[in-house]
Amino acid sequence: MTAVASSIPPSWYLLLAAAVFCVGLFGVLTRRNALYFLMSVELMMNAANINFVAFALYYGDLTGQVFALFVIALAAAEVAIGIGIILVLYRNFGTTDVTVPAEMRW
User: Fold this and answer.
1) N or C: which end of the chain has fewer CB within 10 A?
2) Which CATH number is 57's domain given?
């Protein structure tokens, strides 16, 4: 295990990632608007990316950066599908509040 000399210690990256993840979790748990919900999930994914890249930098391995690229691709697909769901939600119910649709239609 070789550590790469960096001017910023890995604990600062982990602290930043934990703060971003907590903000995203707070948004998921408290917001009812689907767009805010989607943005909060993106924040949580970005916190995971910060961790992946920080550990890749610390250990001098590119595996974390490859995983971060996969998470970015996953986030792009999630946004594309999420926006479609939000548009259908708005078209059917007239709002983007996720608590309004109580049951699925057949």
Assistant:
1) C
2) 1.10.287.3510
